[in-house]
């Protein structure tokens, strides 16, 4: 009943998160009936984004350059490193305006049952970065989920040998909540009232 | 904080129906982090769809050809015409499997306050199609909304001079409901129990 290309478009729109077949069909029709120019602009934007946006070679957030704007910013505190699970969390914390250090973006969180261990998450690279001596405090801002907590605990163990203060954002982040959906005020509270987790703090 | 191209992608994703800025950001990150190949396939599918899919020159539904498969289908009843507001409604009725006639797709419904009158909706072209004498019954399957009802009533008036039976899908379509979201069984009921609206019925 669909034309071939319509079916393909619906199928590809389903690659978007939380888009089922009804939504995808609705999106395809909307674009074809009312947003034909916009659809071409979206196609162009997708191609440009995939071609030019990649991971920052230092913090692993997303950038169009070799090194992202935040890593390059000499006015930010190089001694303070905020560890998050995803670039979305960097965006959320930046929007809260409560942090002026640098970031380190993990590839998600530990999930042993899915075969996602320290190597896949990028923990060895983070420990190596911390070993270089420039960083005096690490703020663990992984999600307040079971996996995010486990990842934070694992990081505390991995950094035991380093003379670095380790803190965990705490106050205000609701249990089970995912960082990118927390409002700016709550994030501000969480960063301001961060709690020490190890002894050199 | 966004890179330029990330911001552009988020903005273009917002052209999709029911996608706000948070959803668009989530979609952009999902594509960049986990669906880079899929994103390029989506871009390609969008371009191909816009290039090749257009209105059928007879029924105004969507097709990749000059005339759509349904209009070309000689096994369907040429004397029975189902009038709908959008190609999505054609899809919904086809999925219900309860109709073997032909279709006519209006450009939405009458909406005088938005400057959308009979000409914009394509009613003169429909009346012209009906005047050719091949059609013996018109099933008005515009939405069961206030605008869809008004459009159906306007069509009854516009066809008064023609020796054509006019019916309206009725039973089962919930008041205020939009046709493309109605389940197949309800659509089947609505088509089976259609009610005559004018005197030549
Ligand atoms: Zn960076
Ligand atoms: Zn057609």
TrEMBL record, chains A, B:
Keywords for this protein: DNA damage, DNA recombination, DNA repair, Metal-binding, Zinc, Zinc-finger
GO biological process: DNA recombination; DNA repair
Protein name: Recombination protein RecR
Reported function: May play a role in DNA repair. It seems to be involved in an RecBC-independent recombinational process of DNA repair. It may act with RecF and RecO.
Domain Toprim: 79-174
Zn finger spans (C4-type): 56-71
Matches recorded under Pfam families: RecR_C (PF21175), RecR_HhH (PF21176), RecR_ZnF (PF02132), Toprim_4 (PF13662)
Species the sequence originates in: Acinetobacter qingfengensis
InterPro entries (alphabetical): DNA_Rcmb_RecR, Rcmb_RecR, Rcmb_RecR_Znf, TOPRIM_dom, TOPRIM_RecR
Protein family: Belongs to the RecR family.
Keyword Zinc appears in the UniProt entry: yes
GO molecular function: DNA binding; zinc ion binding
Top-level lineage group: Bacteria
